[in-house]
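Posting here for the record, re: 6-O-phosphono-beta-D-glucopyranose.
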Amino acid sequence: MSAPASTGTPEEELPNPLTEGLERLPVHSTALVIFGATGDLSRRKLLPALYNLAHEGALPERFELVGVSRSEHSDAEFAKDAAEAIREFSRRDPDEEVLKGLLEHVRYVSGSFDDPDVFRRLGQVLGELDDAAGQRLNRCFYLSTAPSFFPVIVSNLGEQGLDRHDDAEVRCVIEKPFGTTLEEARELNRCVLAVFDERQVFRIDHYLGKETVQNVLAFRFANSLFEPLWNRNAIRNVQITAAEDIGIGSRAGYYDSAGALRDLVQNHMLQLLCLLCMEPPVDFSADAVRDEKVKVLRAIKPPPPERTVRARYGPGTVGGEQVPGYLEEEGVPADSSTETYAALRLTVQNWRWAGVPIYLRTGKRLARKSTEIAVTLREVPHAMFKQDGSVGVQPNQLVLGVQPNEGVSIKLSAKIPGTRMSIRPVNMEFLYGTSFLSQSPEAYERLILDAMRGDATLFTRNDEVEAQWRICDPIVRRWHEEDQGPLPTYESGTQGPEEANSILVGDDQWRAI
Ligand code: BG6
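Prediction output follows.
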């Protein structure tokens, strides 16, 4: 195919032959209702995602947006606020025409989520939107509020009969955290499933919407190269890292009651583990994929204390800036015992993975932002080459980079040019940016679209979320309810606490962050 002639349009708008075939699937006309529409998540992620979907023509032919929040606003004020949020947070500068089209008919319902009248008014607004469209629109309720409101919103939707709509689909998207303990997650599932059927429920884990996370499945199941190696015979260990350089910002209220384990391990990191370790599903349908993920979670026992490490960041330097320690952050209680770093060693006790150490670590205020899965293979069985003054033969390592290095890298051993047989590791790299020449959509774009389409493959099922809690709950209880003595600290901007080395088996080492 010849290169497209220049049209004078900005570079990102040129047709990209490498993304051909990535067509959008049609979505039925929908009214999307965001509860918590003026909140942080909505402003930073949901509204910008909707704009980008509109920009790409991916929204349904008839798309209506309704915001519900406590603050008093008119429709026009909400539209203005939404436009500002989009201008500030969208990944591309908005085209004012597209923005106007998206927000032209926006509706807003204000009031408290426990007030049945709010839901009566919402019902009326949705009825008016159906009338104006001349058809029954699908309804998608997006719960982006503080989690304590999830049960009351769901019950009110049920009581006002908004959980069903004749000849149209009704769906309910629920943000994280889905409970803060196993018992709470069970209770929330009971409450949600008393109103909606499981097929109507979409529990968000935004990591599943990331391109590079979905690529773990593509990498494993669209290549025959790796499957023969994907087991305990060839793999020595797996390391999953979700390191952040940021602190807790203005989220002390939420974070101090959550901690690193609940905030990132219970959801995002266990999902990464599942995608890496699951058996090939029969097809890429929601239940086939989720059945396999649940099997992995069921094969993991909660780790004993000696396989877990927690710590908290102290002051230090990040990106050349002096930053305070966790206890000095605004809103954090002086006697807080919340961890900002968690490391675990797990094993998946099944035929494929028995005995392979699977290390998970996450933390705030570490050296840099880096999310990756590293799979280290076993050493060659016989050291044939002398370690002749070189770094020598090292185990092959496969690194699936989630962010910010989006791609896959394979560490191989190669001969250093010269007259001696000296070996050192080299990398073979696939980089998203280079191969596809396009900016990846944000996770929320994909997830909102999938929820409106009714495709739950990238959402967590009720039994899955409970299985995740079953692994983390005993650790949470140990860390938060029992006196564990002083919490280890690590200097901000570093690799994390020394103590993390204590969970490594034999010669295993953490990769540098
Ligand atoms: C969220 C956590 O779920 O994920 C945050 O609550 C964390 O604490 C964030 O910073 C990380 O997401 P991402 O997409 O930036 O890796």
